[in-house]
Amino acid sequence: MEMLCKSAEDTVLSGFEFGKKLKKGDVVCLIGDLGAGKTTFTKGIAKALNTKYEPVSPTFSIVHDYGGDIPLYHFDLYRLTNENDLMSIDFDSYIFSDGICVIEWPDLALDLLENYYTVEIKYSGNMRTINIKESE
Amino acid sequence: MKTLALDTATAAASVAVVEDGKMLGVMTLNLKKPHSQKIMVAAQKLLEQLELKVSDIDLFAAAHGPGSFTGLRVGIAAVKGFADSLNKPAIGVSTLEAMAYPYLMYKDLVCPLIDARRDQAYYAVYKKGTQTEEIFKADCQNIKNIICQLAVLNKKVIFTGDCVYTHKDYIVSQLGENAVFADELYCVNSAVAVGYIAEKRYLYKKESGISPDYVLKAYTGND
Q1: Once rounded to an integer, what is the mean pLDDT over residues B16-23?
Q2: Nearest C-alpha of chain A: how many angstroms from B69?
Q3: Would you place residue B222 in the very low, low, confident or very high pLDDT band (cuts 50, 70, 90)?
Q4: Per residue in A12-43, pLDDT tens?
Q5: How close B119 comes to chain A (CA, Å)?
Q6: Can you give the residue range of the structural domain that contains A68?
Q7: Which A residues 95-114 touch B at CB under 8 Å?
Q8: Fold match between domain B2-95+188-205 and domain B96-186
Q9: Local confidence band at A75 (pLDDT 50, 70, 90 cut-offs)
């Protein structure tokens, strides 16, 4: 599935539409450069899930829990260097939970995931192309 | 002597008070809620109902692993907090040994299994002797490897733990009648055994001290 976005509002909206389809236990990997709109897209997902808190970038804290009926866990693995780091954030307890995990910079974790969505955000100027794929 | 014991190594959060080898009370919550939100409240309520103050406790114990990374840290931190603030001893007990404890009255081998995801499990194998004997040391492996090692022994093995019923069919296919299963009802971790073992260790072996024993799992490279 491919979507074109002309503004941040559009990106939120596409996240919202995508978020409506997510179920307990789903994992979403977000691919895109700095400033592509990964966190903005996550805000849309959070809206669809009616979370308690609004997403902000988890780069500093590595994982955020926004609460809600289905908990939304928002990761940024950019600052992690190896799999021991994943253990020390108890990664498994999130991805095997009843919540939904959205992971920015997911490369380190890809081998550990079985089924997941990949959302790739590319941009040139103000235009964003969002490409959503399911693994396997 | 009164012991307050915690087991937060699996999905269940359990707290128990044991006095001289007798259970005074236990509260076990088998929820998918973080232990950090439940265990202290559970401990407080249990002590309240037993008409005890935390200062009446002589020994603090926790399952020190293996098990859930966060769970272990919650349990150990709580026990250390109690012990240090009251200047009382703290002691760690193997989660697996505590799980095996109720079955060590039989002569068979006992194999507790803790789910480590991706078809892996934490396990150890115990046997009753003059002392509890550890036939296989605590480790984390693919379930097929674990069962293969046990099949070679050609002995009766009692299985318990949170993932036993997930793998039951496979275990039976490999071990046949040598596999005996604890009732699913008792496959939920309880802090009672942690308390018993802790008390014995402290009294008879003068052991104390607690630190986590995570038993590292291999995130990748499992077959």
Answers
A1: 97
A2: 6
A3: very low
A4: 999 999 999 999 999 999 999 998 999 999 99
A5: 12
A6: 2-134
A7: 96-98, 111-112
A8: yes
A9: very high
**B146-to-B123, B143, B161, B180 alpha-carbon distances in Å:** 8, 5, 14, 15
Q: Which of A88, A97, A111 is closest, CB to CB, to B220? A: A111
Count up the domains in chain A and report the number: 1
pLDDT at A124 (0 to 100): 85
Three-class SS of chain A? CEEEECCHHHHHHHHHHHHCCCCCCCEEEEECCCCCCHHHHHHHHHHHHCCCCCCCCCCCCCEEECCCCCCEEEEECCCCCCHHHHHHCCHHHHHCCCCEEEEECCHHHHHHCCCCEEEEEEEECCEEEEEEEECC
B131 Cβ contact partners less than 8 Å away, ≥ 6 residues apart: none
Which of A92, A98, A111 faces B117 most closely, judged by CB atoms? Answer: A92
Question: Domain locations in chain B?
Answer: 2-95+188-205, 96-186
Assign residue B20 a region: left if phi > 0, alpha if psi is -120 to 50, beta otherwise?
Answer: left
Q: How confident is the model at residue A60 (pLDDT cuts 50, 70, 90)?
A: very high
Cis preceding-peptide flag for A55 (omega within 30 of 0):
no
Q: What is the CATH code of the structural domain delimited by B2-95+188-205? A: 3.30.420.40
CATH tag, B96-186: 3.30.420.40
* Bridge partners, B12 (sequence order): B30
C-alpha distances in angstroms, B67 versus A8, A55, B36, B71, B85? 43, 31, 15, 7, 26
Residue B79 has a CB neighbour count (10 Å cut-off) of 26
Query: Shortest CB distance from A83 goes to which of B68, B214, B220?
Result: B220
| Residue B221 scores a pLDDT above 60 | no
- Give the pLDDT score at B220: 52
Domain of A119: which CATH number? 3.40.50.300
- The pLDDT of B148-170, averaged and rounded, is 96
Confidence of residue A84 (pLDDT cuts 50, 70, 90): confident
Whether residue A86 and residue B117 make contact (CB cut-off 8 A), yes or no, is no
